[in-house]
Here is the input.
Amino acid sequence: MSTPTLADLLAQADADGHDHSATEKATGLLHIHNHATGAITWFPTWKKFRETADWQESVNGAGAELAAASAPAEQAGAALAAAELETLLDQAARSSDANAFVQENLTGHLTRTWALGDAVAKANGKDLHTGGATPSVFAGYPYDVYAQDGGVFATTLWNDIIDARRTRALAEEAARKALKPVSRKAMKNAARKAARR
Here is the structure.
């Protein structure tokens, strides 16, 4: 039996129908069900990703990027992961359809992040992560990349992608309010208060 690709597993999950529990058992994938839209987003666990034909290619690609970087592998990997997350959330905020965006991008980001972690371990001559403490390459990363086989990472990132537009709008509103011109009366009152101190 040949090693399945991630695309094969995702296609099988999409074709299997409504018995999500049976599909999870058959494919080794997990899912997030958006009850508001009825959409199902399938994604692999980090363990299942390592069993696919795509894993070695992804790790080799990430390893080549780390080798080309001027910083040590761990620093380069952390910088790549942070930059790619920032780009993903920025693109999500600009997307006209958050649900379509998350369907198209969640799995790719998860697997790319896990491949970076594995590439850093290989570059440093360490064993691949199999449990326990999160590798230091992800020390500053805002998600717990390996918790519950990657399920925590997937669901929190899924929520952040869905909310990216609203989060950006709130940040822009706060910035606008911070730049709002101050009246002369307010400046005089502030000066009086400061003089009293």
User: Anything to note?
Assistant: Residues 151-178 form the longest helix (28 residues). The beta strands are 29-34, 39-44. The CA atoms of residues 174 and 180 lie 10 Å apart. The chain has a mean pLDDT of 90.
